[in-house]
Structures are given as C-alpha cells and as structure tokens.
C-alpha cells in the first residue's frame, strides 16, 4: 500500500517551480521528483530520462492506451504526462513524491489520489512574471505572450489548490515550502 505523500507543485511558467523543487530535493532527503514524459523537443542542455522522457506522438499514444499515465494534458503546444509506475514505486517506499505539473494535470491527480496535496506557486505579480520570462530569453516573444495568457488562466485556478505560496523572495519561499512538505509528509493516510 502507498504510504508516502504525493505533492503536486503547479504555477505559471516563470513562477520559479523548477528552482524551488530543486532546492527542496537538496533539503529533504526522502523527497523524489517525478520525471515527466513529453512530446516537445528537448531544449539545449536537456537530457532524455533526466529532465523529461522525450517521446514521439506514437509513443505517447501507446502509454495512454496502456494506462501508463497518472495524468496527462496538452500544455502550450505539446503533450506532457506523469508516468504512473515510478510514482507508485516511490510512494510505496514511503517517500514524498513531487510532481511539477500544470493545473489541468494537478486537478486530474486530485481525482485519482484524493489524498494528494496541491501546492500552487504564484509569482509576486503578472508584470514580474513577464519580466522573468523575458530575461530568461529561452523563448521567442510570441511564445512568451502565449505563456502569459496561459499564466493568467492558471492563476484563476489557484483557489482550487490546498496551499498557495507567493515566490517573492526565493529564500523565504524555499523555507516555507520545506516546512510545509515536512509537516505533511510524515502524516499517516486517513
Ligand atoms: P516546459 O516545456 O517549460 O518544460 O513545461 C511547460 C509546462 O508543462 C510547465 O508548466 C510544467 O509544469 C508542465 N508540465 C511538465 N510536466 C508535466 C506533466 O507531466 N503533466 C502536466 N500536466 N504538465 C506538465
């Protein structure tokens, strides 16, 4: 039986989810982050099996057919999904399993695992988010504009989450998230 805790970490791209999750992994030894599958192409420096499992459309379809995903969704211009097997394996070891996924996926996880805890990472403001995306300079302007639209839609869903964390100051946000996960990870399932 699964006895680890499942945490969903969502929020607009540029809110700092990835940085926060990397910091959590360093601080909480029994935390593990799931590697998602995606049909998008790898960016420079991204490695298959480390950042994502980069799949073709046909491979992604096959995993859907085999019920291999805990959840999956269309995000921006590609499909992304959480492979179920590894999540179950790590939960069964009692670990705190983190899923860094979008809001559509987060709400699907709640349907399948009602005991999952949903955390929404919010940027200090929409303007700050745009500045972060632009200074990251990994995406062309039209992609940034599209991400800003999605961000505004995602922000409207935050009240469906269990915990909203404003990532204003990275140190403070890290401390708050570590404390939140540690205090919930140890709790027995009801
Ligand atoms: P990126 O392409 O920048 O790596 O990720 C784009 C978005 O996809 C992010 O908001 C991220 O949270 C979301 N994402 C990554 N993996 C998954 C997944 O497995 N499922 C879902 N639903 N969203 C994901």
Topology (SSEs and partners):
Elements: E1 6-10, H1 17-27, E2 31-33, E3 37-38, E4 53-54, H2 57-65, E5 69-75, E6 78-83, H3 84-92, E7 96-100, H4 103-112, E8 117-122, H5 126-136, H6 141-155, E9 163-166, H7 170-185
Parallel strand pairs: 1-7, 1-8, 2-7, 3-4, 8-9
Antiparallel strand pairs: 3-6, 5-6
Bound molecules: guanosine-5'-monophosphate.
Please describe what this structure looks like.
With 190 residues, the chain is of the alpha/beta class. It has a single domain, classed as Rossmann fold. The chain has 7 helices and 9 strands, in the order βαβββαββαβαβααβα. It has helices spanning 17-27, 57-65, 84-92, 103-112, 126-136, 141-155, 170-185, and strands at residues 6-10, 31-33, 37-38, 53-54, 69-75, 78-83, 96-100, 117-122, 163-166. The strands form 2 sheets. Strands 2-7-1-8-9 form a 5-stranded parallel sheet, with helices on both faces. β5 and β6 (78-83) form a beta hairpin. α1 packs across α7 and α5 (126-136) runs antiparallel to α6 (141-155). The relative contact order is 0.23. The model has no long low-confidence stretch (mean pLDDT 93). Guanosine-5'-monophosphate binds next to β5, β6 and α4. Residues 13, 36, 40, 71, 73, 75-76, 80-82, 100-102, 104-105 line the site of guanosine-5'-monophosphate.
């Amino acid at each position: 039986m699964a006895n680890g805790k499942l945490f969903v970490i969502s929020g607009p791209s540029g809110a700092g989810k990835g940085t926060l999750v990397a910091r959590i992994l360093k601080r909480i030894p029994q935390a593990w982050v799931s590697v998602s599958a995606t049909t998008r192409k790898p960016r420079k420096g991204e490695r298959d099996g480390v950042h994502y499992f980069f799949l073709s459309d046909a491979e992604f379809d096959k995993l859907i057919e085999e019920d291999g995903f805990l959840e999956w969704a269309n995000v921006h211009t590609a499909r992304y999904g959480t492979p179920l097997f590894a999540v179950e394996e790590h939960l069964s070891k009692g670990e705190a399993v983190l899923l860094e996924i979008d809001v559509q996926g987060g709400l699907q996880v709640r349907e399948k695992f009602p005991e999952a805890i949903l955390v929404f990472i919010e940027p200090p403001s929409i303007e700050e988010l745009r500045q972060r995306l632009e200074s990251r300079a990994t995406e062309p302007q039209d992609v940034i504009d599209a991400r800003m639209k999605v961000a505004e839609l995602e922000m409207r869903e935050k009240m469906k989450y269990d915990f909203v964390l404003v990532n204003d100051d990275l140190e403070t946000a890290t401390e708050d998230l570590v404390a939140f996960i540690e205090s919930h990870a140890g709790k027995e399932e009801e």
